[in-house]
Amino acid sequence: MQKINLYRELDANSYPGRGIVIGRSADGKYAVTAYFIMGRSTNSRNRVFVEDGDGIRTKAFDESKLEDPSLIIYAPVRVLNNTTIVTNGDQTDTIYDGLNEGKSFEESLRSREFEPDAPNYTPRISGIMEIEKGKYTYALSILKSDNGNPEQCLRYTYSYDNPLAGEGHFIHTYMKDGNPLPSFEGEPKFVAMEGDIDTFTKKVWESLNLDNKVSLFVRYIDIATGEVKTRICNKYS
User: What domains are defined for the chain?
Assistant: First the structure.
């Protein structure tokens, strides 16, 4: 699989929806993740990321304009011991509880499927990063309808052991804008991980479509020490 430029990939797509990037920094020192949300409706755009303990949650920017919170208010990022969980919905809590009970990442998601937002049936995308004694691994998952048919849920999990410096993977909910929105297809995209946390955050944020982008979360975790650096960008603040 050819490694692609993440920033150009984002710049070329006006509506990838919500996206997760996980990988390793170019200097090999950090485990890296980014999560962004976009929106087309007033309800979807009326959000910000706020820090919540070791993770983050979404919050309505203007509470008076909040319509249906069911699919837009959730905790995208939670931390359980040495595991960081990143998802595009309330399955963050499902994974957290499952791992806490001794289940695997994949087993924890067995009780969930794509979002009930016909006709889009938005995929649930999820990722975990595990760092223990200087060893770093990560995994990504997507739960999606069968080509828009909600009668079947397709479940894919991709695991990456000992990721190499400067390499990562990117998965997002939609292939492009449309009505209905076409679900992501294929394996997570193999992307180059470039820059320190501030450079990476700036370039990802600037690459997202100006009209549709809402919020961005970026975290760099020192693999040797566990030290955490976090950046948050909100269109509305």
Answer: 6-234 (3.60.20.20)
